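Weekly puzzle thread! Below is a chain. First person to post its structure in token form gets bragging rights.
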Amino acid sequence: MKWVERIEPSREEADGPWQRGLNYKTLPPSVTDAKGIDLDQMPSMTEVSVFSGITEIENDSLGQTKPGDRVKVKARGWAWAGGGRNVVRVDLTSDDGASWATAKLKEGSGQKFGRAWAWVFWECEIPDAVVREDGSIRLASKAVDLAFNVQPENSKHGWNVRGLGNNAWYRESLFQ
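Winning reply:
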């Protein structure tokens, strides 16, 4: 936010293409083209679910491993939940969900319950990350919020042509 000069309460959403146009409309999965859709009959997306992301993966033994090895890695990232809901947990997997490590929530984790409007940063040590056939380590993160909404494994449940609201597990790979 820059400099606010005026706040004007309204009983209606903002009049303009960003709110009333296609920008915040989540189309049903059957719609592949917005032409012919009556956007005035669709509510705007005003709240999102829970998200996480991986920003860094560290491993000291890359180049000394072979596929199938299990190695210790450290990961860092962020998480955020809509509606002011607190992030209560972030879990990471290196084996497509067969096992999980729970991250330590860091900066941002002390926000008041139900009033969490900032990102939460996390870090995690995964003691037995799997080295894949191509020599990479692939991590996925999923966050859990105060209402125990959990990031889904994939986006099949909420697919839409514009990709709005896609909060599937975040995946990141570290290559040798």
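Puzzle host: Confirmed. Bonus trivia for everyone else. The two ends are 41 Å apart (CA to CA).
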